UniProtKB/TrEMBL annotation:
It holds the Pfam family Abhydrolase_6. It comes from the Bacteria. Residues 73-322 form the AB hydrolase-1 domain. One of its GO terms (cellular component) is membrane. Keywords: Hydrolase. It comes from Nocardia nova SH22a. InterPro entries: AB_hydrolase_1, AB_hydrolase_fold, AB_hydrolase_sf, Epox_hydrolase-like. The keyword Ligase does not apply. This is Alpha/beta hydrolase family protein.
């Protein structure tokens, strides 16, 4: 057992709070998650907190739930999110897996650092988390949602040798590999707005202005980020998460997502990969996921495409049973392959 795993293993079995960080400050609690119902509620489970320092001075906040020696799953949230976005999956997998979730740069409890926000930086941050949290030779199923999926593709493109070394499988949910303007209906396409639509979207996504009034923000979540059938408490939970994202973080990452192309990363996905989309996703339409799957399959990679009827952008919250089944499928496939001596 490595020194890092030994440290995890000696955590008090009933601990419900993280270890104190080096600066000794208490950990911020996502208050809305304390009030949320059912699977959305902050899990009352032991976890370890670890801080990953990047070369440019950002501190990435990471939590690890579950047995220290269990197969790891790494969850990367999307634009405007925080690690509590994965509350249902933490609950679902922490008994049998080591669930690793982190706040993306500038989100939640993670710092912004000194570098300009770019899609390659997303991949570098994921690489830093994997290097810190996984032992040599240890491989995780990596799950990226929306911007977290873009970051996972960026990691695969920037660190192709790490895909086989660090990943047991990859799930890319509600995401795309090119400019989000090509795949979003945040501003619908109409005959009259074609000349100005792109400019309006660029202004909206890159804005660091204060958030919309709460009622309008909730309406945006309801109309664009979840399916019409989503319950009010799910809308409130998503709204509460996005409301914690600082304006400067939102604007900087929004600008970073306007012009990029990580399609070539599909050829580096040398492990079993699932691309999952929601048929009713208007934030990032299924066209984005279809493009990734097509590129991976054209490169001869093992890639499964799943488009879920009735689901919107927040698939892991809207259809957790379906989402979790796809994650588990990748975990079990890796276990089977490992048992047959096909992978390390």
């Amino acid at each position: 057992m490595s020194a890092l795993k030994k440290l995890r293993a000696v955590a008090p079995a009933g601990a419900s709070a993280a270890l104190a960080p080096r600066d000794g400050r208490p950990e911020e609690i996502f208050a809305a998650g304390e009030r949320a119902p059912g699977q959305l509620r902050n899990p009352r489970l032991p976890y370890r907190r670890e801080l990953v320092e990047t070369a440019d001075g950002a501190t990435l906040h990471v939590r690890s739930y579950g047995p220290a020696d269990a197969p790891p799953i790494v969850f990367a949230h999307g634009f405007g999110g925080r690690l509590e976005y994965w509350n249902p999956q933490i609950r679902a997998f922490a008994d049998s897996h080591r669930v690793i979730a982190f706040d993306q740069r500038g989100h939640g409890r993670s710092g912004r650092g000194r570098r300009r926000f770019t899609v390659p930086l997303l991949g570098e941050d994921l690489a830093a988390v994997l290097a810190h949290m996984l032992d040599p030779g240890e491989r995780a199923v990596i799950v990226g949602h929306s911007m977290g999926g873009i970051g996972t593709l960026s990691w695969a493109q920037g660190f192709p040798a790490d895909v086989a070394a660090r990943a047991a499988g990859v799930l890319l949910a509600n995401t795309c590999a090119t400019n989000v303007l090509d795949h979003t209906e945040l501003i619908p396409r109409t005959p009259w707005n074609a000349p100005v639509r792109a400019a309006l979207l660029r202004t909206f996504l890159a804005s660091q202005a204060p958030s919309l009034p709460a009622v309008l923000d909730r309406a945006l979540v309801r109309r664009k980020f979840v399916a019409p059938s989503a319950p009010a408490e799910l809308v409130e939970f998503v709204h509460a998460i996005t409301s914690t994202c600082p304006n400067v973080t939102r604007g900087r990452w929004g600008a970073a997502l306007l012009d990029f192309d990580v399609t070539a990363a599909a050829g580096s996905l040398t492990v079993p990969t699932t691309v999952l989309t929601g048929q009713l996703d208007l934030a990032l339409k299924p066209s984005g996921g279809r493009g990734i799957a097509a590129a991976a399959q054209a490169a001869g990679r093992e890639c499964r495409y799943v488009e879920v009827p009735g689901a919107g952008h927040c698939s892991n919250l809207e259809i957790p049973a379906v989402f979790d089944r796809e994650v588990l499928r990748l975990c079990e496939a890796h276990a089977d392959r490992s048992g047959r001596g096909l992978v390390g």
